[in-house]
């Protein structure tokens, strides 16, 4: 690699062509996971939840990283590139193993998005599928101080290592109120089954005070711009795949929720049908969220390290006060 062209991820400007090419080349070169991590994946129960597997495997990556023990900003940048490149390989390797197949090895000649779809299915994806997945990755790449990003920054602020921070983020993303919502959306679409069943289904859910996944957002009180982009992708993909019924059900749900509850669809709602048509199993939707969000997580970690301060929120005690201590033998 020529001097001056070393890829420096997460710089505060758009990369020049030579810099972008250098970073792409390094990402492609780092896709293979360490042999020890693959052995771990082979030893894990096939019934393990993919997000649990991802959390465990990323923690193991930190042990095998050639820069382990070096937590400088420069080493953390190199680790950021490696974990970004290897996260997709972990997801597709475990999926192959649990399906009774040998993992498909990454190809350096494919783009980041195309390589993921290739290692997932064993077939080179079409340009349309690659472009669609690439856009979906970009739309999910970062979103300010969401729960998982905040968890990553809290962890790295203690001067732990980058892999510890990413493991914290993955554990946080696994919760259904953060990363698992699009899985819930897909299950809901499958349960509804038809456009005619949308309103009865939703009214029954609301009557029982159950949450409708894919609606509302802590930041957006109107339309989530990411959802608008994904909606058009969903419309086109479902039509081309002969699965327009899924889009029609989705659109009817969206109209109902806006009219009845004043809630807009969020990024999770239409990403469900996009991922489904691309051939992703439902329980990989959240790991794919991580495959995308790793760009944001690592950028936040590096930003925190560059100007670090321990994150230590204060708490206000609101329990009882002036309660006398009662010895154990006098307590009723």
Protein described:
The chain has helices spanning 17-29, 35-43, 50-64, 73-98, 112-121, 127-139, 147-157, 162-173, 181-192, 198-207, 225-240, 244-261, 267-277, 285-306. It has 332 residues and is mainly α. The protein folds into two domains: 17-174 and 282-306, Orthogonal Bundle (Citrate Synthase, domain 1); 181-277, Cytochrome p450-Terp, domain 2, CATH 1.10.230. It starts with 16 loop residues before the first helix and ends in a 26-residue tail after the last helix. Mean pLDDT is 93; it is low at 1-7.
Task: Record keyword descriptors for this entry.
mainly alpha; Citrate Synthase, domain 1; 2 domains; disordered N terminus
Q: Which oligomerization state do the chains in this entry correspond to?
A: single chain
Rg, Cα atoms, Å: 22 Å
Strand content: under 5%
Q: What is the CATH homologous superfamily assignment of the largest domain?
A: Citrate Synthase, domain 1
Domains (count): 2
Main sheet properties? none
At CATH level 3, the topology of the largest domain is Citrate Synthase, domain 1
């Amino acid at each position: 690699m020529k001097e001056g062209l070393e890829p420096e991820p997460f710089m505060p400007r758009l990369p020049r062509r030579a810099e972008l090419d250098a970073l792409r080349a390094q990402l492609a070169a780092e896709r293979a996971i360490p042999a020890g991590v693959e052995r771990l994946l082979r030893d894990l129960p096939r019934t393990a939840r993919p997000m649990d597997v991802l959390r465990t495997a990323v923690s193991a990556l930190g042990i095998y990283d050639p820069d382990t023990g070096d937590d400088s900003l420069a080493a953390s940048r190199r680790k950021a590139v490696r974990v970004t490149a290897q996260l997709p390989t972990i997801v597709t390797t475990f999926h192959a193993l649990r399906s009774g197949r040998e993992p498909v090895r990454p190809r350096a000649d494919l783009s980041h998005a195309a390589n993921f779809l290739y290692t997932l299915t064993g077939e080179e994806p079409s340009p349309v599928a690659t472009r669609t997945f690439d856009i979906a990755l970009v739309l999910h790449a970062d979103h300010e101080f969401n729960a998982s990003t905040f968890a990553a920054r809290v962890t790295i602020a203690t001067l732990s290592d980058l892999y510890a921070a990413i493991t914290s983020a993955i554990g946080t993303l696994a919760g259904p109120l953060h990363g698992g919502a699009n899985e819930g959306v897909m299950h809901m679409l499958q349960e509804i089954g038809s456009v005619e069943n949308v309103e009865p289904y939703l009214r029954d859910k609301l009557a029982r005070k159950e949450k409708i996944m894919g609606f509302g957002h802590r930041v957006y009180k109107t339309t989530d711009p990411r959802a608008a982009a994904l909606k058009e992708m969903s419309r086109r993909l479902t039509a081309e795949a002969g699965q327009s019924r899924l889009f029609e059900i989705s659109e009817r749900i969206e109209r109902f929720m806006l009219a009845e509850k004043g809630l807009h669809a969020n990024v999770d709602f239409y990403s469900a049908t996009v991922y489904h048509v691309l051939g992703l199993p439902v329980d990989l939707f959240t790991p794919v969220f991580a495959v995308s969000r790793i760009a944001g997580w690592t950028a936040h970690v590096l930003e925190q390290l560059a100007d670090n301060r321990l994150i230590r929120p204060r708490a206000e005690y609101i329990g009882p006060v002036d309660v006398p201590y009662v010895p154990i033998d006098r307590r009723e």
